[in-house]
Amino acid sequence: MPRTPTFNQPPPPGHVWADEASRLTGRSIEQLYKDRQEQKRSGHSHGPRSVTIGARKAAWRIADIENWLLSQTGPAPDDEVIYDSRSPEPARAAA
C-alpha cells in the first residue's frame, strides 16, 4: 500500500497538492498518482493533468482540475427520452 504523502509547505499559487486534488476530483490519491504515471508514459491520462514542482513534487493546477471536471459531466438527459426508454407494462389478463 503506498504511503500517503505529507506536505510541509503550501502549494504554489494556482496549484494544489495530491490531498486537495483528491478531495476536489473525488479520486483517491493513489489513483491520481496512477494517472500521473500513465500521463508520463503515454502523454495522456484519465485524470486531470499533473505538473512536477521542483525535483520530485507532484501538483495539480486548479484550472486543469476544473476543466477535467467539466469534461466528465455530460448534458442532462432529456425527460422525454427517459420516459420513452421505459419498457411498456405487461398486459393484464382479463378477469
Describe the structure in brief.
The chain has 4 helices and 3 strands. It has 95 residues and is an alpha+beta fold.
State the end-to-end CA separation: 64 Å
Widest sheet: strand order? 1-3-2
Order of helices and strands: EHHEEHH
Number of helices: 4
Structural class: alpha+beta
* Whole-angstrom Rg: 21 Å
How does the overall form come out from the CA principal axes? elongated
Textual characterization of the structure:
There is one protein chain. By secondary structure, the protein is of the alpha+beta class. It has a domain of 58 residues. The protein is built from four helices and three strands. The chain has a three-stranded antiparallel β-sheet. Strand 2 and strand 3 form a beta hairpin. The longest helix has 14 residues. It is elongated and about 80 Å long. It starts with 14 loop residues before the first strand and ends in an 11-residue tail after the last helix.
